Amino acid sequence: MRGLNYTFAETADAAVTQFAEAGGSARYIAGGTNIYDLMKLGIERPAHLIDVSRIEGLDAIETDGDVLRFGGRALMADVARAPVVRDEYPVLAESLLKAASQQLRNMATVGGNLLQRTRCMYFRNGAGSSTTVGVYLCNKREPGSGCAALGGLDRTQAVLGTSEACTAVAPGDWPVALAAMDATIEVFGPEGTRNIPIADFYLLPGDTPHREFNINPGELVTAITVRKTPAGRTSTYHKIRDRESYAFALASAAVAVEMDGDAVRTARIALGGVATTPWRASAAERVVVGSSLTPELALEAGHAAFTEARPGQHNAFKVELGARVIADALIIAAQRRV
Ligand SMILES: Cc1cc2nc3c(=O)[nH]c(=O)nc-3n(C[C@H](O)[C@H](O)[C@H](O)COP(=O)(O)OP(=O)(O)OC[C@H]3O[C@@H](n4cnc5c(N)ncnc54)[C@H](O)[C@@H]3O)c2cc1C
Question: Where does the FAD-binding PCMH-type domain lie (predicted)?
Fold first, then answer.
């Protein structure tokens, strides 16, 4: 039996101080829907959990001038049903409502969602918990040990952003919508506050797949901000999965467009379920901007997003599926113009 210290932080300052005092073996816990899972699997073994779910003000959902601001411990369910999100930013609301289950969304926070770990089965199985025997090699779990997904069952693995060391998919839906909306992540730590563009928040696996987030030990996600844009209303999050609820994406697309009649003035497209990070599909955006949107052009844009895809043995279907998800999402978003 290993001991575990569990404390509550009432302020962001207190959380950061407690983390520093714990000396490297601490983890923050918010809703606990991911970290408890990882502790049971033997992947996370903290000696100290610092509960941030009571920090005052960190659950606020606010409009500040032309910026939407979501506190780091705001619940997924609360953000999804906030009127400004539901009515003006369907891409954000839908990415949350299509994630997990209502019960989970009532517990889980938008900050925790950003930092959840991959669902790669080789990562999750093999750490040698109390109920499993360590068998699968995983460079993300144990740097330098190897990757059992390469040449293994790779149906759900990534086709974009992969490396020789790792093909694990970035799991979250919300970060994909945030990538399309060019969100900023505000973190607070021993050195003060940093604002990190979401494009810089997630790290490609390269040969260091254990480094997933551009965040330092002890830094707390205090807020997520999204700049308001007219494209917010003409947006959607389209997600394809093995079953219609309670499942991670096989392929998903967050799309927001500004239309001028049938012509696309601006486009923001990001992909989930197919890449090692929330994936901005700039090549697809370039195909549609300035042109009339037709189903054929939408599919051409979808295909453009996958020109650099590197499928494995069982996941080549994601290339065509992902292209079609983008195409459908573009049409759905454009139909929302008033
Ligand atoms: C059955 C199941 C199905 C799911 N399906 C989906 C799905 O379809 N789509 C999807 O997107 N997600 C899905 N999820 C994942 C779920 O959305 C995440 O577990 C949840 O969002 C994590 O939030 P949390 O507050 O519970 O995080 P926690 O479990 O508390 O923490 C997760 C990680 O974030 C860190 N952390 C938490 N808050 C902060 C903070 N403020 N600052 C710094 N670090 C912090 C913790 O230290 C930990 O490392 C599913 C989960 C389950 C169990």
Answer: 1-231
Tens of pLDDT, residue by residue over 200-231, are 999 999 999 999 999 999 999 999 999 999 99
Answer for the pair 206, 140: CB distance below 8 angstroms, yes or no.
no
d(Cα 77, Cα 101) in Å, to the nearest integer?
10
Q: How confident is the model at residue 296 (pLDDT cuts 50, 70, 90)?
A: very high
- Rounded distance between C-alpha atoms, residue 32 and residue 36, angstroms: 6
Pocket test for ligand 1, best of 116, 211, 224 (most atoms within 8 A of CB): 116
Give CA torsion, residues 199, 200, 201, 202, to 10 deg: 80
CB contact at 8 A, 71 and 222: yes
Can you name the residues that pair with 27 across neighbouring β-strands?
49
Which of 115, 194, 238, 244, when mutated, tests ligand 1's pocket best, judged by the most ligand atoms within 8 Å of its CB?
Answer: 115
Q: How far apart are alpha carbons 195 and 188 in whole angstroms? A: 9
Average pLDDT, the chain: 96
230 ligand 1 Cβ < 6 A: no
What's the burial of 26, exposed, middle or buried (CB within 10 Å: 0-12/13-18/19+)? buried
Domains of the chain: 5-54 (3.30.43.10), 230-335 (3.30.390.50)
Residues paired with 253 in a beta bridge: 238, 271
Residue (of 75, 148, 69, 71) closest to 108 by Cα position: 75
Q: Are strands 184-189 and 220-227 parallel, antiparallel or unpaired?
A: antiparallel
**Neighbour tally for 31: CB within 10 Å:** 21
Map residue 267 onto helix, strand or coil.
strand
Q: What are phi and psi for residue 170, nearest 5 degrees?
A: -70, 125
